Each structure stands twice: as structure tokens, then as C-alpha cells.
Prior knowledge:
Radius of gyration: 26 Å
Shape: elongated
Distance between the termini: 72 Å
Number of strands: 0
Low-confidence stretches: none
Mean pLDDT: 93
Structural class: mainly alpha
Order of helices and strands: HH
Largest sheet: none
Helix content: over 70%
Number of helices: 2
Amino acid sequence: MKNPLKFLQEVKQEAFKVTWPTGKETIQGSLMVVAMAIIAAVFFLFLDQILKFFLDIVLKVSI
Length: 63
């Protein structure tokens, strides 16, 4: 990199080539991420409760 000014000009040109998402696409993507996070949280909550139930049974039997 011998000419920093030329480098910055090329970066600017490449930035204009980027296709940015619309506001609607951004909101839709954000809602999908939130929904999947909620689904994952509920899934792991149920899994944790089921495993806790079986662990309690095992510990009571062994005593």
C-alpha cells in the first residue's frame, strides 16, 4: 500500500457497490432473530425441567 489516498478512494467506491437492506427487511430480520431466540429459550427451559425431573427421580431412588 503505497498511496493511502488511492486506497481510501477505492474503499469509498466499494462501499457504494454494497446493497443495503431496506427498513422493512431490517425489521423483518430482527423480528425473526427475536422469535428464534424466544423459541430456543422456551425449548431449553422445557429440556432443563425434564432433565431436572429425571435427576430428582434418580437421586431419590439411590438414597
